[in-house]
Amino acid sequence: MKFSTQSFVAVAIAVTSCANVLAQTPAAPPAFTVDPAGAGVIYAADQDTYFEVLRDKDGNPANAWAPVVWGQKCVISDDEVGENGEAAIRIDNLDFLPLQFKSTVNLSEYRFLHIDIWPDSDMQLDFTLQNWWPGEKHVSAIYDLKGGQWTSIDIDMSTFPWGVKNGEQERVVNVFKLGGEKVNADEHPYAKTIYMTNIIAHNESPAGVEGVTIKPVEGNGITYNLFGIPVGDDYKGIVIRDGKKYIQ
């Protein structure tokens, strides 16, 4: 493997051999070009570029997850994707997965949490950032993921009802959950196999936030930003006009 950071601990529950046979193999994840110097890297496809790994309050690398077993049938492991062997987390038989950091991770200096995710079939998924004490949590939007392709997600952590310490808001997390909050897996089954990489906290404006799809009225000539708010000609950045994106 190209990356050198500590491997994830597999959740030790038996899984049938057929679940480990993929009908598809993911291509390389999309390039993530945020400046490494301004990013908090939990896990990255390219550890040669994103070599600095976010540390928890005890100095552990944030990708050194502690095993959490609440009856899940899923198994997580390290894997490689793409022609160049990019690093990714593989999750088989997801049925809701809480990934727990060994100690508290402070994301206060970052606004966005970026994730690239690839399922082997169409599915819906939400993410939760949680602080056990005093029990704060933020649940993301529900994302529609297409089977056999990568989806890039940027969770806007500024919407989290964070606690305040010494007059400053803190973004403090010790559990990162996949599913189990908004999506009913019985009605909308999860994919059998999922790959996830580029879990990176950052402050650069992403192409989209919280999976919101803006659908302005076709042909009305109004210019919107990515949040669906009408803007004028003096607005700088990515805009949507008549259903198409432009850089203004």
Count of extended strands: 17
Strand/helix succession = EEEEEEEEEEEEEEEEE
Low-confidence stretches: 1-23, 208-219
Q: Name the overall outline.
A: globular
Largest beta-sheet characterization: 6 strands, antiparallel
Question: What is the tally of helical segments?
Answer: 0
**DSSP helix fraction:** under 10%
Mean pLDDT: 79
| Terminal residue distance | 41 Å
Q: Which band does the percent of strand residues land in?
A: 25-35%
The secondary-structure class comes to mainly beta
Radius of gyration, taken over Cα atoms and rounded to an integer in Å: 19 Å
Structure explained in plain terms:
A hairpin with a 2-residue loop joins β11 and β12. Residues 1-23 and 208-219 have low confidence and may be disordered. It is built from no helices and 17 strands. It is globular. The strands form 5 sheets. Strands 1, 2, 3, 5, 10 and 14 form a 6-stranded antiparallel beta sheet that branches. The chain has a 4-stranded antiparallel beta sheet with strand order 4-13-7-8, with no helix packed on it. Helices cover 0% and strands 35% of the residues. With 248 residues, it is mainly beta.
